[in-house]
């Protein structure tokens, strides 16, 4: 007698970009245009960001890390300066601080939102503090009105690392619209994905300086000079770097950027399904969205309390992978537990360390089907059964 076997479920990744025919047509158009580096498509992306955020200027660059590096360089932050930042973040902002020889000062996060708070930051201000770098954890925004007031009161530069929040807002203020400088990411797993890529936006004078620094200190782009004046007719006004976004990347980024409202709606639907489907599981906390926040849902971040849940975070991740072929991720291993930053902690970071041990990011991306979402909910519930 032949036996009917259940077909094995296809692996469900933690994240996968949603690339459509418009993105493909835009890239092909750029390939056929003969212009591959920063040019018309990157300029369109900068215009779209300026318009959406109401900021004075925008510069499309190779990555969010590049945007952060340029932000510190443009603001002349360097040796002897302190920059206050969360430890529950990706290492990019701290690496950029170290490149300019500034000193990261790490603070704890709020246990509900996992974002930094103005109170924690204010307590860490010293006479050496030059800047505050906030990070909108997972797409939930920090309280930017309060941070703006705090920065102004102390004469500090305010930077938003908005890598997770290309399409989020709080109290009507979009991420990236309040700080002196803000940075976004188009990395392959971000809410608008172009493989790599970043944006630096904000105050006109600072972005202008960043543009010079990110273009070898040259006062015009190759595209601006092309066909109009001798391509060798340029001046180098500062010793800069090369951080411009190519038009090949921008061809993809500009279409993804336009689709953010559609993507965010789908991410929010998935998040709502998880929140109701996972309600009531002992030891598992689902994300809380504060009043006034339009969450960007880069992450659907749950916290698993090993004292009250049947499994700890790592056991849940392993069981989802091994038994159900469902991938998850962790955001983040706190930066102060990583190599060059181990000696930097001068205050306890209990919320950060607890989150670092308990946080798990479930798959939450617009290419997921309703069936995929149900599959994750059933798999998690089964582990708790
Ligand atoms: C909070 C945060 N900032 C910055 C970055 C760096 O982005 P990119 O890869 O575009 O340099 C990341 C990347 O994951 C991130 O999560």
UniProtKB/TrEMBL annotation:
The keyword Transferase applies. One of its GO terms (molecular function) is transaminase activity. It comes from the Bacteria. The keyword Nucleotidyltransferase does not apply. CDD domains: AHBA_syn. Pfam families: DegT_DnrJ_EryC1 (PF01041). Transmembrane segments: none annotated. SUPFAM superfamilies: PLP-dependent transferases. Belongs to the DegT/DnrJ/EryC1 family. L-glutamine:2-deoxy-scyllo-inosose/scyllo-inosose aminotransferase subfamily. This is DegT/DnrJ/EryC1/StrS family aminotransferase.
């Amino acid at each position: 007698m032949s036996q009917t076997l259940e077909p094995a479920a296809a692996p469900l990744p933690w994240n996968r970009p949603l690339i459509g025919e418009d993105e493909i047509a835009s890239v092909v158009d750029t390939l056929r245009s003969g212009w591959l580096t920063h040019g018309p498509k990157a300029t369109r992306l900068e215009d779209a960001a300026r318009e959406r955020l109401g900021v004075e200027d925008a510069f499309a660059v190779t990555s969010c890390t590049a945007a952060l590096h340029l932000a510190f360089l443009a603001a002349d932050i360097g040796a002897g300066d302190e920059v206050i930042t969360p430890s529950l973040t990706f290492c990019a902002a701290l690496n950029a601080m170290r490149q300019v020889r500034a000193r990261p000062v790490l603070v704890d996060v709020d246990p509900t939102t996992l974002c930094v708070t103005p109170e924690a930051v204010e307590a860490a201000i010293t006479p050496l503090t030059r800047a505050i770098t906030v990070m909108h954890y997972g797409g939930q925004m920090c309280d930017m009105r309060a941070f703006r007031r705090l920065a102004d009161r102390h004469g500090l530069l305010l930077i938003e690392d908005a890598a997770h929040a290309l399409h989020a807002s709080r109290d009507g203020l979009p991420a990236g619209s309040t700080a002196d400088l803000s940075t976004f990411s188009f990395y392959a797993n971000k809410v608008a994905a172009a493989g790599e890529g970043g944006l630096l936006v904000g105050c006109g004078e600072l972005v202008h300086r960043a543009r010079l620094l990110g273009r070898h200190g040259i006062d015009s782009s190759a595209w601006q000079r092309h066909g109009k004046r001798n391509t060798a007719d340029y001046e180098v006004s500062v010793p800069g770097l090369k951080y411009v976004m190519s038009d090949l990347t921008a061809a993809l980024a500009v279409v993804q950027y336009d689709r953010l409202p559609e993507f965010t709606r789908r991410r929010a639907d998935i998040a709502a399904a998880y929140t109701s489907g996972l309600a009531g599981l002992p030891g598992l906390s689902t994300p809380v969205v504060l009043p006034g926040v339009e969450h960007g849902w880069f992450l659907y971040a749950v916290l698993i309390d090993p004292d009250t849940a049947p499994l700890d975070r790592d056991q849940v991740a392993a069981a989802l992978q091994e038994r159900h072929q469902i991938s998850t991720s962790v955001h983040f291993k706190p930066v102060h537990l990583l190599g060059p930053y181990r000696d930097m902690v001068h205050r306890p970071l209990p919320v950060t360390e607890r989150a670092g041990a308990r946080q798990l990011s479930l798959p939450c991306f617009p290419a997921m089907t309703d069936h995929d979402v149900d599959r994750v909910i059933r798999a998690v519930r089964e582990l708790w059964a």
